Amino acid sequence: RHKLTQSGIGEWNLWGRLREVVVGTAKGLVIPNYETCYENYVEPEVIQLIKEYGGKQLEEAAPELFAAYERETDELVRIYEAHGVKVHRPRAIRPEEIAYSFGHGANILTPCDPFWCVGRNVLETSWRKLAGWPQKWAVRETYQSKVDADPSVLLHSCPLPSPGAEGGDYFFEVGDLLIVGDGNVIVAYGEDETSSNLRGCEWAKRELEADGFTVTILELPQTKILHLFAVICIIGPKTAIAYEGAFPGKVLPEPLKDWNISWCDYEEAIQTAPCAVNIDRKTVLMPTKAPKT
C-alpha cells in the first residue's frame, strides 16, 4: 500500500492475495460491426459471426454462444467467492451509452477492459476498438465510491480518441500492462496496430512515473494474439508463462531478465496457456483449455 493511501484500493503485484474483482456478463452484448483490426487476431468463425450479425444482440443471434459465456462467468463467480473474493457485477449498459460505439456494438463481458489499478492509481483506458467504449461508465460505478472515499487515490483517464482515428491518436488498452512488482510496470504496443500504440503507452508511463513507478515500454512483434497479458502471465514471484513468439530469441525486457519462465509455443498460446489470475500465493486460476498448469 502506498504510504499516502487510506483505503485498500490498489494492486502492487500480480501474485498477492486477491480481495475484490469485477466479473462481467454476456447479457446485453451487442455483436460488434466489422472493423479491419479484427482480422489480426480474431478467429475466422467469429469474423463470420460479426459480418453476419453485427449490431444484433448475441442472445438472439447466437444463443448457444451466449449460454456458454454465461456459464463461464457464473463459474468464475463461484470460484472467486469460494476463495473469499468479493465479486462485483456491473449494471447493464444503457442505450445512450451504446450510442458511443457509433454502431460498432457493445459488451460488458470483460470489465477489466475499461480500467486497471496500479498501486493507488486507477487508469481508465482509451480503446482502439469502438465496441469497447460503452462499458466504461457501468464499470466505473463499481469502483467510483472507493475513489471518492480516499483523496489519495489517483484517477487517470486516457484521452478518448476521435471515432475512426488512425494510429496517431491515443490508444491505451490495459491488456497491454503488466505489473511485475518492486515498483516496475511494463506497457506494450504492437506493430500490428490492434490495441495500444506508442502514444498511449507514453501517456501511461508519464502518469505512473509521476507516482514513483518505473515503466518499461515494449514493442511486441505481430503475433495474431491480442494484448500483452495474453502472451505472458505471472503465476508467482518472478515466475511466468510466456509465448516464445512474442519475445524473439526468448529475450525478455529488463524487469524480467532473471525470472523463471515456462515457454509455450503458438498452439499452446492460442489455447490460453499464458492466461491466469492469482487468487493467492497457492492458488492460480487458469482456463480449462490451458495446456500448461
Q: Let me know the largest β-sheet.
A: 3 strands, mixed
Shape by Cα distribution: globular
Number of helices: 7
Beta-strand segment tally: 15
* Lateral strand order in the biggest sheet: 5-6-7
Q: What's the mean pLDDT score?
A: 91
Q: How many angstroms does the end-to-end distance come to?
A: 30 Å
Helical residues, percent: 10-25%
- Spans where pLDDT lies below 50 across 5 or more residues: none
Structural class, judged by helices and strands?
Answer: alpha/beta
Oligomer: single chain
The Rg value, from CA coordinates, equals: 18 Å
Q: Approximately what portion of the residues adopt beta-strand conformation?
A: 15-25%
Order of secondary-structure elements = EEHHHEHEEEHEEEHEEEEHEE
Task: Describe, in plain words, how this protein is organized in 3D.
With 293 residues, the chain is α/β, with parallel strands linked by helices. The protein contains 7 helices and 15 strands. The strands form 6 sheets. Strands 5-6-7 form a 3-stranded mixed beta sheet, with helices on both faces. The longest helix is centred in the first third of the chain and has 20 residues, at 63-82. It is globular, with a radius of gyration of 18 Å. The chain starts with 19 loop residues before the first strand and ends in an 8-residue tail after the last strand. The relative contact order is 0.14. The mean pLDDT is 91.
